[in-house]
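Fold it.
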Amino acid sequence: MAPTGLLLVLAGLLELRWWSTPSASRLVALLASLKAEYGAAPPALLRGGREGAVELVVLGVVCAACATLAPLVARGRRWARTCVLAVGTGTFVLGLMGIGADSWALQDREGYYHTLAQSTAGAHIPTIKALFYADWYPWLEDIAQGAQVLASLAVIVALAVAAMWHTDYFVAKRATEAAPTAWDDALARIREQNSRERLGARQPE
C-alpha cells in the first residue's frame, strides 16, 4: 500500500498544482461562460474543483501511513492487524467509489468536445485544449486509483487468510516482549513450590 499511496499523493499534488495556475482560472471562467451561453455542462473531472485533488492526497497519505504498521503485523500484534484490516477495507471502498464515480460520469473531456462541436461553440475547442491539464494526467490518476484498490484488496485477503489459518500467531502482546508483573512473579513462585513438593513426594523414604 505504500507505493500506491505515494502515487495517489503525487497525482493529487500535480492536480493541485494545475489548479493554482492561471490556465485553470481561465479555463473555469471559459467553461462557465459556455455553459451559460450554450448550456454545455463542464467535464465531470472539473466539477469537483480542488476537492477531488485533496481527496486523492488524503487517501494516499492514509494508505502510506497504514503501511508503517507492517512491522507490527509481522510481529503478530493483533491490534495492528485489526487497524490494517479496517483501513484496508475503508480505502478499498473509497477507491471503488472514486473509480465508479469516474466511470459513471455523464460527460468526460472528449464528450465535452463533441458537445461543443455539435453547436456553434466548436471554435473554442482549441483554446480549451490549450488550457487543459496534460493528456497523460488522467492516465496517471486512473493507474494510481486502480493500483490502490488492488493493493487494499490484497492486504484484506492476506490478513484475513492469516487470521484464519494462523490464529495463535496474533496476540494482544508478545509474551517474550511483555515485562513480568507481580502476578506473573507470584504464579512463578507457586509453580516452583509445587514442583519442589512433587519432587519431594517422589523421593524414597
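Residues 5 and 61 are 6 Å apart (CA to CA).
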